[in-house]
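Box 3.1 A note on notation
Throughout this textbook, protein chains are presented in two layers. The first layer is the amino acid sequence; the second is a token string describing backbone geometry. Keep the layers aligned when reading.
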Amino acid sequence: MYYSVVCYPQLASKLSESIDAIRRDYDPSWRLIEPHVDICFPATNRLDEKLLANHVEHVLSDWSPFVIQLGGLHKSRDHWLFLTLREGADEIKRLHREMYTGYLAKYKKEPGKPGYDPMPHLGLGLFLQQGCTYDWRNPRESDFDHERYEEAMRRAEALPLPADVLVERLHITAIPDVVIEWTSGKRVDFPGDAEMIAVREFRLGQKGE
């Protein structure tokens, strides 16, 4: 297992239903994980779960709930369609930086190196031509499915946005190894039977649950 720290935005019902419908058609991970904003990248299973939880709790003890606003759309270099933040991106980035101190300091990704992602987002879909293997480190432009992307973009542009969302809790999740293998190009098909494990929930400014 690998571990990540994520925020599951509490979306209004109409927006939630619309995002779910888009992800169901275009996001191979839609069964695995709910719509989310990554705070920490997946980190090695050599992490001690208790020490990780203590670290996250310590960082969040100095944070109060804050508002982000979903509203932008962006295509990533590895062919994802992202729902990005109009407001609150600086807070998410600062929270990201603070997570990569102390116990997680040695896992920090640097600008220009594989794995660094300066754009907080919620993933809506991945757009590869049929039969292409996904490898986030080495995306190929020839693999990009323009037609399905444009179709998804039209649907995304009709979402009831912008939308303000209160960030008041984060979660540690455990990601199966097979999912990480898929993201690095070692598996052709997404492992549809994989399951995420909810490790722990934390409230900002309070002790974790």
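Residues 13-26 form the longest helix (14 residues). The mean pLDDT is 93.
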